[in-house]
Every structure is written in structure tokens, then in C-alpha cells.
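Researcher: Structure for this, please.
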Amino acid sequence: MCTELTVIPSSALTEQEQADLNASIDSIIAAHKNNRQEINRLVFESVSAMTDSEGYEQQLSSRRGLRRLWGAITGSNKRLQDKINSSRAAAQFAAQTTLQRLSEQNLLTFDLITAVNNKLNASMTAVEGEINQIYAALIQFFKQNRSDMIQLENRVARLEQNVNLLNWQNSVEYQMLDGVEYVDLDDASKIVCMVRDFYDITGGEWRTSDLLLLKTAMSTIDISPRGNIRYYDFIDRVAGDEKLLTKLLGGKHIQRLPETYLVPLLGIKKLELLDTDEAYIVDTVENSLQSAGVAADRHKLENNLVQNYVAQEAQVNLDTEVNNYDLTMEMLFNLRSAEDSGLFLEEVVPEVQEVEPAEQIEENAKAAEQEAAEKLAEEGKAAEEEFLKANFEDSVPQLEDLSEKGYACANGMLFWAYYFGYEDYPSDPQKALEYAKKGSDAADPICGLLYATYSDISQDEKLELLRKVRKQVSKMADANDSFATLALGVCYFQARQYDEAQKALGSYEKAGGVLAYEMLGLMKQYVEKQEKTALTYYKTAVMNKIYHAYVLMGTLYRAGYNDRDIAAKLGTKSYLCFNKARDCYKKASNYNQSEGSYEMAQTSMLGSEEYDKWCAIAKKQGYKEGMKSWTSDIKEFNK
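Model: Predicted structure, C-alpha cell format:
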């Protein structure tokens, strides 16, 4: 079963790049073909990549799903990754190839295809042009896959039908919800009941032929499979009826916002939040309207907020009508994906227990507290290990969660991540210092050292804090604590004690540490004037996903453009250094580094239009006039 998808021409990549891409995609699919959740994510992220609008390079910085997709597919092939990151056509072709490969290996399930088609139908714009042509081609591709799938299954020798499913189908018209027979319910309620019953009977595992039985069941309870229902009407109906929602979720609770491709569950959860944790948003809008003399309907406000939220996050118009049968398929897909990803939380009814003596209660509480502390420490160590290996995408969210739970050590690493920046997240000194203070207040010595060194507290406060913590951190470093050694080094660096910084950070690097390459490079460049070694450090930093180092590489090449001796040390001609500098700045900008965009503006050669373009990008990425980088001091100190 294979349907060709050829809407994007192959000319976007060379033949060698296409071969590399195919090998990488096959490797990713082989690794995840038994992981339904990863395959689903791969399909939806590929569809998003194919339907991205113009301005791809700038949009990429805010699209974490696409960055993760290209990173997974290209792996260590930096050349191919740069090509895809900088070219919309290359990215679209890579996504198209991914979908084609998944189709060839029969990994597109019936319910997944229906959920994707629902999203595509609800995403098509009113404007004619290239994007709608791509939408139309994708819709046809997925429909043809679904048709091929049914034909293939009809040709294969049939296994014994699910007897329980057939019995349910034959008796569905007599089933009841809250004392009302299914046949007498409204259409949204009928869909919910069929989805939940079907899911429970199959245990979340079904064949295409099982799904086709639902059409007969729908007709039996007087709901047309080809009839339509408005997306938002369904979401609002389910979210607004506690009994209906309980039926759909099987008595469970959606514990967080779902993935954006689970559109119905996303809308239901957002409505719940606007009635609870985010009710203040509705209150604010309602009060503003009333202050302006405009009558406010709270229900309509919530409707508009949810529809705008889903349009922004999932690129889906909830005002679209969707086919009853297709919505039933999509809800089954939503439930199965939610169960696979641990989205649901069981509603636990507490058991009535005998009252224990006060001594036993206290002893049990201490034991539970000790167990929780040990578990927290275990989770903390695991997250720390991943962070120190530069696995930021997984470790930073884990460390943030651990910080919220009271694990003080996490705050030092979060300071490092936000002060110096990681992956394509630029420096955020204010947030970094908040984490350092939080850890310092919890008596973590590394956080105390970082807060004393980097904050603007008074000199007396700094000295008092340093007196308390410096020896502790030094002892930790002597005991081969990798992060303590790194913290000492960065604090010496901040204090312009470069000899001590070099000693500590050099020791950290020799022990296998990968987070100090930028500072080691800066000291080689500005203190020791070893520009070639500095360039090697910056390149190594980039390889470890510290993309701010592209800015430092650009600045070093600019120095080579102005100084032939430096250019010679870098192994190039001075007249070539300018283009190399701009290439580095552009890569930094692609990874959301506002300094890179700012430098692209400063080095622009094509007039005011190009200058204004890069200034706008820098501002969007957070650059402010006169803003200083954490690297500024060493440049000024060693002029």
C-alpha cells in the first residue's frame, strides 16, 4: 500500500542530500515504529512543516516541534540540518519524504489519518495560492491512504470478528446514558457514547474493519455518518456537561493541556481552565468591557478565547463543520493518544481508614517525608546528569519541575541555563538570578556563590555570603563535583580573575565537562590571543547545542577581517572573514539569538531595507537598544 505525495519538488535538495535524508528518516522510523505516540507526533509535525507559510526562518525559532523534528531526522549531519533550517523548500521536501516513508511502511492508521484530515480541512485558508494547493494535495494523499488500507484489509483473510463488538453493535439502540436511550440523545452525546463504549470494548486496540462497524452503529441510533457537526459546538457541549465529560473520559481527568494535534481534548481542557485556574483572564476582559460600557456575555467570551487559542496553537478553525463519522474516529484517536502519553489522571476516591494513634501518624509522616526526599534526590541526580551532558531539551523542564518541588540543587543549573543561554534559548539574566536567589535562600552553597557573584546586592552582603559558601563549594570541587568546579570557574570569570577561571574551567573540561567551551574560548581569544584555539572551542560549543557561540565565532571572524594577523591565525584570508562572520551571525539568528540578528543589521551591506529587516528580527527575539551580553566584560577588560 503506497500512495505518491509529490507536491514539493525534489530540486530543493541535491541527490546526495536526498540520499542522506532517506537514510536518516528510515533510521528514525525503525527506532520508533513500535511507538504509536512517536509516529503520531512525527506525522503531525511533518504536516505542520509542509503547510508552514512564508517567513520560515523567522518562524522556526518559535516552533519547538519543528526544531525537534529536524534535529531528530538529521541527527549529527550538521550540513543537512543547516540546509533544512534555512530553506523552507528543503524543510517541506524533508517533511513530504517523511510522510511518504511512513505510508510505504503501513504506519498510518485509519484513526490517525482521519484526525489529520479533520485538522487539514479545518486549517485551509480562504486565500487561494500555494499553501492551499499543499493542503489539497495532503488531504488527497491521506484519503487515498485510507482507501488503500480498507481495500488491503478486505483482501486479507479475515480473523474472527470481535464478538463483544458485534453484540454491542446489535444492541446499541437500547443502551442508555443517565436514563435516556442513545437513540434519543443529541448528536454530540451519541458520538461520545459510541466512542467510549467502542474504546472500552476494544481496550484501545482495533483493526480498520472494527472501525467500519461504527457506521452501522451510528445509523442504528439515528445519527448520519455523513452528517456534519460544528467542531466548537461539540467541544462546548461535552465540556459543559459533567456527566457527558465523565462518560467520554471514562471517569478520568485531563491533568494538563494536551498536544496541539489532539484538538477536541485541547479545546475541552482550555474551557475547563478558563472556568478554574485561568478564570482571571475572562474576569479581566469582562471587567474591561463593562468599564467601557459594553455588555459582556461570559460564555461568549470563553468561546472566543478558546477558539482564538486553538487557532493560534493548533492552526485549526473551530468554526468548521466536521463529518460525524470522522469526528468519531478523531475522538478515538484522541483517547488512545491521551492514554499512551499519560494525559489522563484517575479520579481516586479516598478510602475510609481507621484513626491511628498520634505517635503512629507522626512516624508514618516522617517515613513518607523521607521516602519523598529520597525520590526527589534520585530524580534530581538523573536530571543533573542529563544537564551536564548538554541534554538541555529534556533536563531543563525536569529541573524546573524539581525546583518547584523544593529540590534546591536544581536552581544552580537553571541559573546557568538562563544566564548563559542554551540551545536556541537566549540569555535571560533576570530569570537566572531568580533561580540563584531561590537556591541561595534554601541554603544551597553553589546557588549562594552564584548569587553573590552575579547579583547587584551590596558589597557587604556579597562578602558575607561569599564567606559562608566559598569554602563549601571549593570542598565540593575538590571532591570531584563537576558542577561545583564549573560554578567556581564561572564566578572567577565574572570577577575577571582569568588565571583562576582558566585553572578551574580547564580542570572541568579535562574531567569531561562540556558546558564551559564559550568561556574557555573567550579567554583564549582575548587574554592569551590564541585565536585559532578560541575558534575550536566555539565550534565545539555549537556541537553541544550552545548556539550563542555562533555569535562569538562571527565576532572572531570580524576581527580577522580587520586584522590580517588574526585572519592568518584562523587559516583564512582577511577579505574572506567578513562573509564568514555574517554566515555565523545568520546561523545564530536562525537559533533565536538576538545578538546574531543585531550583528546582521550592523554588518548589512544592502542598504536600509536589509538593516531594518534584521533590526526588526532582533527586536522580536528580545534585543533591546544598548543591551550588553555576558561576554562584554572580557572584551572591554582586555582591549
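Researcher: Any notable elements?
Model: Residues 595 and 629 are 8 Å apart (CA to CA). The chain has a mean pLDDT of 82.
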